[in-house]
């Protein structure tokens, strides 16, 4: 079994992380559009979306059967199915895989639920290490106001009601999010997350994201659309052997 | 009393919450078709007639994940890591919602397989042994682990008598042979080798499963009696 950091695939894996209301989904949607328009083959994968595991997760949530440990495990199972189906095969095929939330979401939430920090990291050892993991960093007041404004109801587990922090769902949600932010912050160094300022205007955030990603796109196969024919030819001329060597030695694969 | 001892990380933080577990945790291990459920069917009424309250549990019977796991196994998209983690989810749900409450309440918990079969199956399917051990490391060490040991040659007639070779019990998801029989032999041979390795590591009490049912039951009872709470 290949484990974190040891996978070597020709594709690239870019992931976005952050609390609800950080704007990360908006950013990855814009990135996806751009990559497609540039002719890349893009595969998009979302947190908690395995068709095999879906019914079990919703049963657990609906009937409130989940403890912190089984909450952690059912999400790991869901993620394993996505890894085996949606992430590894496209990466092997040389595609660009985009993931809205990744293992760091599990680390933040599960540890906030008091699951052992080391144990949950062991659990996800099978995950592919992303090429770049963006962390959309936002002050808690901002994300809370984005999420809570105009919302009538928070779900039980979403609000972290199972932690018993408060009987008021809104208050519980705030305290839970605070714990999650704390975990994210400590993971920036631990996993080399790329912290992004999520308070900037959306186009500026997107410009920065594309700038970071661009160097990793070298050597990735593109479909030649007529509009890009000339640009592609120009780029190919610019590629010198030395640059190709740099790509292979430093930024290659989805490590 | 079952001690609060773990193989790995106490991920559920039981040591913070518990002082002692007055029940007993007794595990019957062994490969598919070796006669575990027959023995449990004898032990349960024997213990109950002795006044001991018994809870039994077996794989894929969790309220949370049992049905989902069975459904996933019926399809054709289930990968090995997903299968392994589905089993972990099923195990931990039973561990937290059946086994632990029963141990707290002073029951004798008889479990038809425990983490050992699950680890062996995962390792045969290519899981990193260190990885799978650390995940199941949250399990309590049982008061006793009885391993019903059998050779593949002795296993084959039992399995045929019981209705033939099953897809999963033959490891057909890995296609270890041209047909069910060949795959069964290869799969079970690998599993039994892993059980041998686990026997030493986890201190299984080995019982010869080729003996007559009554003799096996007699041996189990003799070894269980000293474990039971007295008075």
Structure overview:
The complex is a heterodimer of chains A (255) and B (231). Chain A is 51% helix and 10% strand. With 255 residues, chain A is of the alpha/beta class. In chain A, strands 2-3-1-4-5 form a five-stranded parallel β-sheet, sandwiched between helices. The radius of gyration of chain A is 19 Å and the shape is globular. The relative contact order of chain A is 0.19. Residues 240-255 of chain A have low confidence and may be disordered. Chain B has 231 residues and is of the alpha/beta class. Chain B contains nine helices and five strands. Chain B has helices at residues 14-17, 36-49, 66-74, 80-104, 115-124, 129-136, 152-161, 180-202, 213-224; strands at 24-29, 54-58, 108-112, 144-149, 205-208. Chain B has a five-stranded parallel β-sheet with strand order 2-3-1-4-5, with helices on both faces. Chain B is globular, with a radius of gyration of 18 Å. Chain A binds chain B through residues 1, 3, 50, 52-53, 55-56, 59-60, 65-67, 69-70, 73-74, 76-77, 80-81, 83-85, 114-116, 118-120, 122-123, 125-126, and chain B through 8-13, 63-65, 67-69, 71-72, 75, 77-82, 84-86, 88-89, 92-93, 96-97, 126-128, 131, 134-135, 137-138.
What is the number of helical segments of chain A per DSSP (H or I, 4+ residues)?
Answer: 10
Shape of chain B: globular
Taking all residues together, what is the mean pLDDT of chain A?
89
For the biggest β-sheet of chain A, the strand order reads 2-3-1-4-5
Helix content of chain A: 40-55%
N-end to C-end Cα span of chain B? 13 Å
User: Span from first to last CA of chain A?
Assistant: 15 Å
Q: Beta-strand level of the residues of chain B, as a percent range?
A: 5-15%
Low-confidence stretches of chain A: 240-255
* Overall form of chain A: globular
- Which pair of chains has the greatest number of interface residues, and how are they split between the two chains? A-B, 33 and 38 residues
Count of distinct strands of chain B: 5
H/E element sequence of chain B? HEHEHHEHHEHHEH
- Count of DSSP helices of chain B? 9
């Amino acid at each position: 079994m290949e484990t974190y950091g040891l996978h070597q695939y020709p594709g690239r894996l870019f992931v976005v992380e952050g609390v609800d209301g950080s704007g990360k989904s908006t950013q990855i949607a814009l990135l996806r559009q751009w990559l497609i328009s540039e002719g890349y083959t893009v595969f998009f994968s979302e947190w908690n979306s395995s068709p095999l595991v879906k019914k079990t997760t919703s049963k657990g949530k609906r009937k409130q059967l989940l403890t912190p440990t089984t909450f952690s495990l059912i999400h790991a199972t869901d993620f394993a199915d996505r890894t085996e189906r949606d992430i590894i095969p496209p990466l092997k095929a040389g595609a660009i895989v985009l993931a809205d939330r990744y293992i760091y979401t599990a680390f933040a939430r599960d540890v906030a639920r008091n699951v052992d920090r080391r144990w949950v990291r062991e659990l996800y050892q099978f995950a592919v290490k992303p090429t770049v993991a963006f962390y959309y960093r936002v002050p808690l007041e901002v994300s809370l106001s984005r999420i809570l404004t105009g919302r009538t109801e928070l779900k039980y587990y979403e609000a972290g009601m199972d932690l018993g922090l408060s009987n008021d769902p809104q208050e519980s949600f705030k305290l839970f999010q605070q714990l999650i932010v704390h975990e994210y912050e400590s993971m920036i160094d631990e996993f080399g997350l790329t912290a992004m300022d999520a308070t900037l205007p959306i186009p500026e955030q997107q410009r920065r994201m594309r700038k970071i990603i661009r160097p990793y796109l070298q050597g990735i196969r593109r479909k030649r659309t007529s509009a890009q024919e000339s640009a592609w030819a120009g780029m190919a001329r610019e590629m010198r052997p030395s640059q190709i060597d740099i790509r292979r030695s430093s930024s290659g694969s989805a490590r | 009393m079952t001690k609060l001892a773990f193989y790995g990380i106490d991920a559920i933080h039981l040591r913070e919450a518990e002082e002692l577990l007055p029940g007993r945790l007794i595990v019957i291990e062994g490969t598919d078709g070796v006669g575990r459920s027959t023995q449990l069917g004898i032990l349960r009424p024997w213990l109950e007639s002795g006044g001991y309250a018994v809870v039994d549990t077996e794989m894929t019977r969790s309220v949370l994940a049992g049905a989902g796991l069975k459904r996933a196994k019926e399809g054709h998209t289930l990968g090995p890591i997903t299968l392994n983690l589905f089993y972990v989810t099923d195990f931990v749900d039973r561990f937290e919602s059946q086994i632990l409450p029963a141990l707290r309440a002073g029951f004798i918990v008889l479990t038809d397989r425990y983490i050992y079969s699950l680890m062996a199956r995962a390792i045969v399917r290519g899981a990193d042994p260190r990885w799978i051990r650390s995940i199941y490391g949250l399990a309590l060490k049982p008061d006793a682990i009885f391993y019903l040991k059998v050779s593949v040659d002795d296993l084959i007639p039992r399995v045929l008598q019981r209705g033939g070779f099953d897809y999963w019990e033959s490891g057909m998801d890995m296609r270890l042979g041209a047909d069910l029989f060949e795959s069964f032999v290869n799969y079970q041979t690998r599993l039994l080798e892993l059980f041998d390795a686990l026997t030493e590591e986890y201190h299984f009490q080995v019982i010869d499963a080729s003996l007559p049912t009554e003799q096996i039951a007699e041996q189990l009872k003799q070894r269980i009696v000293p474990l039971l709470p007295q008075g």
